[in-house]
Design brief:
The protein is mainly β. It has a domain of about 60 residues. The strands form two sheets. It has a five-stranded antiparallel beta sheet, with no helix packed on it. A three-stranded antiparallel beta sheet has the order 5-6-7, with no helix packed on it. The protein is globular, with a radius of gyration of 14 Å.
């Protein structure tokens, strides 16, 4: 995914984008180079709080690759080809859904770009 050219790289940014998996889990990469995992149940709950990962690029026009693998109840996250973390989560009984997600800064609209999407089973 590619960050907008006008995105602000500050520690309090809300601008970010990422992937939705298993219907209600979201891995989001923020413009400041942090990432987080959220679950919507219907409220937003942080599964993994905003975390710095050195392999993530930050700021305007930053391009980052996100890879999510799931096996049973284990989720593994990779960014730019490097493993970032592994966590346990509750897998849905009947498979799940996949999608993309993006959110703008609080004070302006941002346009995130998803350059290539591959889904494997």
């Amino acid at each position: 995914m590619k960050a907008p050219p006008d995105v602000v790289d500050d520690p309090e940014t809300t601008a970010g984008a990422g992937l939705m998996f298993w219907q209600n889990y979201f891995v989001i990469v923020y413009a400041n180079g942090n990432y987080a995992v959220w679950r919507q149940t219907p409220d937003w709950v942080a599964v993994l709080a905003s975390t710095k990962f050195e392999k993530l690029k930050a700021g305007p026009n930053a391009v980052n690759e996100i890879k999510v693998t799931t096996l049973n109840n284990v989720v593994t996250l990779f960014f730019n080809g490097e493993k970032a973390t592994e966590l346990r989560a509750q897998a849905p009984k009947n498979g799940g859904e996949f999608g993309v997600y993006a959110q703008s800064s609080k004070d302006k609209s941002n346009e995130w770009r998803f350059l290539s999407i591959v889904v494997n089973e």
